[in-house]
Amino acid sequence: MGEQEKRKLVVLTGAGISAESGIKTFRDDNGLWEGHEVMDVATPEGWQRNRELVLDFYNQRRKACLKAKPNQAHLKLAALESSYEVTIITQNVDDLHEKAGSSQIIHLHGELCKSQSSIDPEITYPIEGWELKLGDKCEKGSQLRPFVVWFGEPVPKMTAAIAAVQQADALAVIGTSLLVYPAAGLIDYVAANIPKFIIDPKIPSLYPMENLFPIEEKAGTGVMKMENLLKSWDFKN
Description:
Elements: E1 7-13, H1 15-19, E2 32-33, E3 36-37, H2 38-41, H3 44-49, H4 51-67, H5 72-79, E4 84-90, H6 96-100, E5 105-107, E6 110-117, E7 124-126, E8 144-148, H7 158-166, E9 170-174, E10 196-199, E11 212-215, H8 219-232
Parallel strand pairs: 1-4, 1-9, 4-5, 9-10, 10-11
Antiparallel strand pairs: 2-3, 6-7, 6-8
């Protein structure tokens, strides 16, 4: 099959896929993220209250991210590019999809290894190493902040994500509870006649949906099962 004829596989990934690489999921049942109140470290208000705390919090997350290695699921999704046109839409801010070799990645919630101007969100920089400090400023003179979409902020990449989902020939949802909006709403844009795979040890409750294949597995083994199901799917032109 020629390159231009490859089917479009769109994959939405959440914290569950990175958990197998040792990166803890976004927050615990008690509303804490790594021992911190989420509102203190993941909102513009938290940033205004205590910039040093927020910078340190993400510095520690970045340090862990730099040490983490892609797992079987990340690597398999990258390998699927030999057979499909794969677009990864991720809620994760780590770079494990990049490390695994995936070439088309939409980061809905930002990228941990980049910084952003506090006054102009269009200005971003790669972070050398793991540390972003008070006093590190953008070219306009404002303090640099983590390039992460916080609660209450717009999600600029949603338009691109919706367009990708609408064009998908197959959709996979891996390691996400589908509770965080607007990302969770992406599944509403998918065509009814295409296969939809939900891969998670705990499948979230969904409304009835055509051609839905729940795979109650961890990401690594679940992606392999999905590949086998995709091979047997009768794609109709």
